[in-house]
Automatic annotation (TrEMBL):
Residues in Peptidase S49 domain copies: 106-257
Record keywords, A-Z: Hydrolase, Protease, Serine protease
Domain of life of the native organism: Bacteria
Gene Ontology BP term (one): proteolysis
This protein's name: Signal peptide peptidase SppA
Keyword Hydrolase in annotation: yes
Taxonomic source organism: Aceticella autotrophica
GO molecular function, one term: serine-type peptidase activity
Gene coding for it: sppA
Signal peptide: none
Family: Belongs to the peptidase S49 family.
PANTHER family linked to this entry: PEPTIDASE S49, SIGNAL PEPTIDE PEPTIDASE SPPA-RELATED
Length: 305
């Protein structure tokens, strides 16, 4: 065994051990916490790409489904308000709308929803925010991006150069619509445009209902562009400027909590976020994760067979 292989094995063993330790350390300890009457606020976290994705070594970025968190908050009798932390550029249209609808159900229980926007709350992230009673954004938050996109890469030219040809056996004329080995036909473009238009119509109606804004005004803002939090405030897309703790103060005031409220999180950080990500419970500098990314992700992608 050469030296490089041995170093690789040692690093892999360390990562596995660190992951197992992080899983144990990141278990919530809320069951041992006693919450007094009307002293606690729930916290739901929507972080990263909505719909889920994987990162280092194939570990999911989102360890906790926001819908499950919302359901926990819905059943929690110790809270009267929920702060929804959003730090997401968007993602799946279906999942974004599911989160929005679950937040509406939460609101129907009588609980107040205060949205706290982080670095970004765009596209599907903004859709989810529209369920909030009050939306708070940082002046520099990137939000908006109201729109829908569908895209794919056409490899037809590359296939021809390599002498490759895709063979398709299908049950219907449009079953291979969006194939990356050929162009769309005019009829297929029309079909997909219809899907985009219908999804977009759902989006702008959600914004219109959530922000009490006319559809005509929403349409003027729904061209896919992003806004800073300060711009969004002037346009009526958010209600206040501030950070997460400002949002906590607003939520506490809305439900009459005196003094500093207890925060009841319905999520735990992922193992790698806990150990390497630079969050509140981080044990290492966030730059360490980038070193691992270079060692394993970028390297493996070059050698992928």
């Amino acid at each position: 065994m050469n030296k490089k292989a041995l170093i690789g094995i040692v690093i892999a063993v360390l990562i596995v051990g660190a992951t197992l330790a992080a899983v144990i350390m990141s278990k919530p300890n809320q069951e041992n916490t006693v919450y007094g009457p009307n002293t606690a606020l729930g916290v739901v976290t929507i972080d990263g790409v909505i719909g889920g994705s994987t990162s280092l070594l194939g570990i999911p970025q989102n360890q906790n489904d926001p819908v499950k968190q919302i359901r926990q908050a819905m059943d929690d009798k110790t809270i009267k308000a929920v702060v929804v932390k959003i730090n997401s550029p968007g993602g799946s249209a279906a999942k974004s709308e599911e989160i929005y609808n679950e937040l509406l159900k939460l609101k129907k229980t009588g609980k107040k929803i205060i949205v706290s926007m982080g670095d970004y709350a765009a596209s599907g992230g903004y859709m989810a925010a529209c369920a909030g009673d009050i939306i708070v954004a940082s002046p520099a938050t990137l939000t908006g991006s109201i729109g829908v996109i569908m895209e794919y890469t056409n490899y037809e030219g590359l296939y021809k150069k390599l002498g490759l040809k895709e063979v398709i056996i299908k049950s219907g004329e449009y079953k291979d619509i969006g194939s990356p080995t050929r162009d769309l036909t005019p009829e297929e473009k029309e079909i997909l445009q219809g899907v985009i238009n219908d999804t977009f119509d759902q989006f702008i109606h959600i914004v219109s209902d959530g922000r009490k804004m006319s559809l005509d005004k929403v349409k003027t803002l729904a061209n896919g562009r992003v806004f800073t939090g300060r711009q969004a405030l002037k346009l009526g897309l958010v209600d206040k400027l501030g950070d997460f703790y400002d949002s906590v103060d607003i939520a506490a005031k809305e439900v009459g909590i005196k003094g500093k409220p207890q925060l009841k999180y319905y999520t735990t950080q992922s193992p790698f976020s806990t150990l390497f990500g630079g969050g509140e419970n981080s044990n290492f500098d966030g730059s360490f994760i980038e070193i691992l990314r270079l060692l394993f992700i970028d390297r493996n992608s070059l050698n992928f067979n």
